[in-house]
Amino acid sequence: MATRKKVLLKVIILGDSGVGKTSLMNQYVNKKFSASYKATIGADFLTKEVLVDDRIVTMQLWDTAGQERFQSLGVAFYRGADCCVLVYDVNNSKSFETLDSWRDEFLIQASPMDPESFPFVVIGNKIDVEDSKRAISNKRAQMFCQQKGGVPYFETSAKEAINVEQAFEVIARQALAQEEAGDFNSDFPETIPINLESSNNGCAC
Amino acid sequence: MANPLSPSIPPSPPSPSASFYDMSDDEEGDYNTIMHTRTGKGVKLLYSKSKVYVHPTPSAKDNIPGFIALIQQKSSSLAPTSPSTEARPTSASSSKSVASTSLLLAWVPESALGDAYDTYVKVDLSDSSSPPRQSYLVPEPPTSTTTHSSLGTYAFAVPVSEIYSLLVRPPSLGWWFGSVVINTRAGDSFPALFFHDSECESTILQRKKLARESFDPFSDGGGMFWGGDEVLRWLKRYVNIERSGAEPSIYLVEPTADDKLNFGGKPTTEKVRKSLEEENKNTPSKKRDGGMDPITKTLKEARWNFLEKLSQVTTFTRRTAQAVAENQNLPPQVRRLMHNPQVQTLQDEFDSARIYLARWAMGIAEQSERERMNRIWTAKDVLEMEDSAVGEFEILELEAGNLSLSERRKPVTLTEWNGWFDEHTGRLQITPDEVKERIFHGGLDPEDGVRKEAWLFLLEVFNWDSSKDERAAALNSRRDEYIRLKGAWWERQIEGNSTPEQAEYMRDQKSRIEKDVHRTDRTIALFAGEDTPHPDPDSPFADVGTNVHLEQMKDMLLTYNEYNKDLGYVQGMSDLLAPIYAVMQDDAVAFWGFEKFMERMERNFLRDQSGMRLQLLTLDHLVQLLDPALYLHLQKLDSTNFFFFFRMLLVWYKREFEWNNVLHLWEVLWTDYLSSNFHLFVALAILERHRDVIMEHLRGFDEVLKYVNELSNTIDLQTTLIRAEALFRRFQRTVEAIDKKGNFPAPNLRQRKPISATSSSDSVPKASASGADTGAGPASSSGSASGGAASGSGSGSGTAAQTKQQQQQQNKGKQTQGGQGQGAADAKPKEKVISPELRQLLSRKVEKLDKKEVRAHGGGVGT
Questions:
Q1: Measured between CB atoms, which of A35, A73, A201 is closest to B646?
Q2: I need a labelling partner for B735 at 20 to 30 A (CA). Which of A83, A129, B95, B849 fits?
Q3: CB nearest B570 (choices: A35, A69, A205)
Q4: How far is B519 from chain A (nearest CA, A)?
């Protein structure tokens, strides 16, 4: 495989279906919001070039289906990730409660070199919805992130483009730091055979 | 992306209680475009011009003479619909000016005119320099508004409001005829119309007149007056026509500010298109431009445009695909671009240029293919198009005698359908296979309501041998049953007599269904409205509103969720239900159609994904067998998991084709005419279409996934189906050949134990052959414990414990002998073996899961 001249940062976006993963990604990359994105089937990604300090990096943002049974096939995409974004809907407590299992699942599937230090970012989306519907307070989410070792936390609205840029800037930094740390381990295999069947080892079934 | 046409018109909500048959008359009107005005009153012929030809082939003897005409229709009788919009748009373009919607620009072959011929001639010869004083009525031309549905005829009539631009190319005396290509807003192009001015009496007269008046036969543009000028003059009387600054051969019809911007400024890649197209048009005889290779020439000009474009789109996003799609009518020759040294340089300089160019070239090829769709498709056409390793497609045999190929590919109309049934008993008078064969090749008429009836047979809600009365009775009991099922969960919800776990599951499922319904096919008029207040004020959708059809969808899916407890609702199901409901427009009937559809689709939604894995694995075997070179390449890209086909297989290409084509594709697949897994041959057909691009330009799993994902809405259905059929036949013959050689189809058991033994996490006991890890699927359990895949026994789909070394070893084995993986098999001579998964493809019997299987792997609450 040809060596890439630029740094490619692989970011995985996870979370329950309908929390706004696709919308966040599209808001960040295309500066667009549509109320009628279809449910994501399979997986897709968008890329965006960003400047982190003085370096141009390419972010590859992976969007996957939210229903958890489809994740067993998603293992191929987790590999080589530099950062994982966990998204929930601040108006839906269930989507917050599942963050833990999304995190665990990711760590199992992606099996990063050092799971303890692998960068996560948590996003509470849909803060544009009226306050009365809010189910998870900022405080509670902050506490959760604190417990997970100080994971950065952002509250966003993909619809109103609130805080999206800021969140992804931190995501980019986290990913870049992770990528650079990984470069020291040059004996890490360059390519990993991706096999459908290999997902059996970690799936919940 | 929201359809700009649909939201403004709230669909008329049909009464859900109305009977299935009651519905049809009213609703059918909506299916029609302009074709339904067969009132005999006729339309007003404003202008016409004779001796305008379509050149279907390079041979002059195939030229078809006809008239181009501007026709006025009563605007009330017209529901102009863009060909690309859905099956049921209501008067979509109501915002456009009445004038341009009631005007049709048409081309009619002389042979189709009959008695009206004289009128056309008369109008042609009348003085056209002023608006017509007298109105001539002619029968509405037998035409179609889309380039797709006009198989077998080139005639068309397109509402002027639907014309995006005209590509106008004045004649060059002695070299070529002047031509006009009509590009629609939907992105279609009609075949080029060639003005044979020297035969056209009116043009000759007009030239003479101009010569008399000004002593200068050369009109405004400096060129000689010709038929195309006249057409522009007609149109300018009614609509705003603007010549593009960037592209002088493009005339924009009622351009928006955006259009003007796009075409007004600097030259774009359109330049490449144009000059290449000219090159193309003049083949084979008139290639006298000589000198520099035109591709190189235009490339030099285009280079900076590429770079400019690429700087805007360093990421190959959907926007890029869009930009490519806008480059209409590029000839397939541009594919050669990819081999040009200058392009290679460009590729090296810009990483994403490679994929951009690959997609661009492919878009071009697809476009020119679409242009050719106006021709009668024969397998020979496909053959000419193909240059893949799968290679020369054989001409499809013309079985079933009397019908010619083009006849067979005409959609089945309600009249034809009804003709197959006894008028008294309502029993089918021909065999189900004969019906299926017709639908497999032609599909069903999208507009006359035949789907409503025929789908129920295809989905096996009705028995093929049933009588009219039996079907009515069946429908009635199905209706009662649906009401009962729906009532059951409804009641339980209200009474709350369920465990807390059940209640929570139900709540989750309910909100999942609601979320998905609100984002399923909302661009279809039926599902677009939000005019009804949401019944549940606590719903997250309470403030956006809903409509009766969305609510019906939710009820049906909730009912299914309860009905099939072992599986429950899973994402993707709403995509499968929407077309059935839209066609039936009756919730109870649609529910049972969906339920039957789900019987075969169930395997796609299992919690352990075994059904999807099986299909992806089968595709893996299929590619190994039929296109080993491509397979090897995919292996290098770590792409033999074929995950990039996941979406296509899960919801049967629902996201890849536009609505109308999805309906067509599904009814074809439902016939199981060649194979109950024909959808895998559709996948192969798509893959083969793009194999060259994949092999030459894509260098990683992510690139393949992105490339394939973005094929969405660019794939031509008709040619894909033809190709898929050819591939099936080829597959069939390959299997026969191998079987003949091996005497018996199922050879000895492969020694695959080492692999399956190491995959400790594999809980599936059936560790047979290559299907080891996917053995949970239904088909492989039915297959005997016989050989591996075609050539290499599924090494690309190895197991959890499979190490890199093993993989390499297998690769080696494959390269050297196309052999069967490892172990004892390595000693075998080179031989192709048909895996059970592949053999299953020859079966027409639908693989349905038994209840136990669903219970074990479904992931619902029934477990």
A1: A73
A2: B849
A3: A69
A4: 5
Q: How far apart are CA B786 and CA B739, in angstroms?
A: 13
Domain boundaries B411-604, corresponding CATH code = 1.10.8.270
Q: Report the residue from A1, A39, A195 with minimal CB separation from B519.
A: A39
Nearest to B698 by CA among B710, B680, B681: B710
Which two tokens mark B568?
Answer: 């429950």
Does residue A202 lie in a domain region? Answer: no
Q: Do A17 and B571 touch (CB under 8 A)?
A: yes
The per-residue pLDDT for B498 is 73
Of B208, B251, B255, residue with least CA distance to B233: B251
Which tokens go with B68? 């181009």
Other CB atoms within 10 A of residue B69 CB: 26
Residue of A nearest to B349 (CA): A5
Which residue does chain B place closest to A62, by CA atoms?
B702
A197 at B interface, C-beta within 8 A: yes
Helix H, strand E, coil C: the string for B428-483 is ECCCHHHHHHHHHHHCECCCCCHHHHHHHHHCCCCCCCCCHHHHHHHHHHHHHHHH
Q: Which residues of B touch A35 (CB under 8 A)?
A: 544
Angstrom distance (rounded) from CA B141 to CA B185? 22
The model carries a pTM of: 0.61
Query: CB distance from A48 to chain B under 8 Å?
Result: yes
- Structural domain range at position A98: 7-187
Q: Which of A43, A69, A195 sits opposite B802 (nearest CB)?
A: A195
What are φ and ψ of residue A87, in 5° steps? -115, 135
Q: Is residue A14 part of a domain?
A: yes
**Partners of residue A187 in chain B, C-beta under 8 Å:** none
Question: Would you mind telling me the total number of residues written for chain A in this entry?
Answer: 205
Between CA B493 and CA B535 the distance in angstroms is 15
Q: How far apart are the first and last CA of chain A?
A: 35
d(CA B585, CA B549): 9
Q: What is the pLDDT of residues A59-73, one digit of tens each?
A: 999 998 888 788 776
Chain A residues lying within 8 Å of B508, measured CB to CB: 94
Contact criterion met (CB < 8 Å) for A5 and B646: no
Which chain A residues are closer than 8 Å to B763 by Cβ? 200
- B702: Cβ contacts below 8 Å, ≥ 6 apart: A45, A60
- Chain B residue closest in CA terms to A4: B351
Does A201 fall in a domain? no
Domain B351-386+606-741+834-862 has CATH 1.10.472.80: yes
Look at residues B528, B60, B575 and name the one whose alpha carbon lies nearest to residue B284.
B60
Mean residue pLDDT across chain A: 85
- Residue range A149-199, pLDDT digits in tens: 999 999 999 999 999 999 999 999 999 999 888 754 444 444 444 444 444
Give the tokens for residue B384.
């000419």
Distance from CA of B187 to the nearest CA of A (A): 23
Q: Which of B574, B709, B774 sits opposite A44 (nearest CB)?
A: B709
Rg (CA), chain A: 16
pLDDT < 50 stretches in chain B: 1-40, 76-98, 148-152, 215-222, 265-351, 372-403, 745, 747-829, 863
CB of A139 less than 8 A from some CB of B: no
Q: Which two tokens stand for residue B454?
A: 């025929």
Give B488 to chain A, closest Cα distance, Å.
Answer: 26
* d(C-alpha B462, C-alpha B470), whole Å: 9
Report the alpha-carbon distance of residue B563 to residue B569 in Å, rounded.
10
* C-alpha Rg value of chain B to the nearest Å: 29
Answer whether A69 sits within 8 Å of B607, measured CB to CB: yes
Q: Would you kindly state where each structural domain of chain B is located, as residue ranges? A: 42-73+98-213+222-259, 351-386+606-741+834-862, 411-604
Contacts of A30 in chain B (CB under 8 A): 317-319
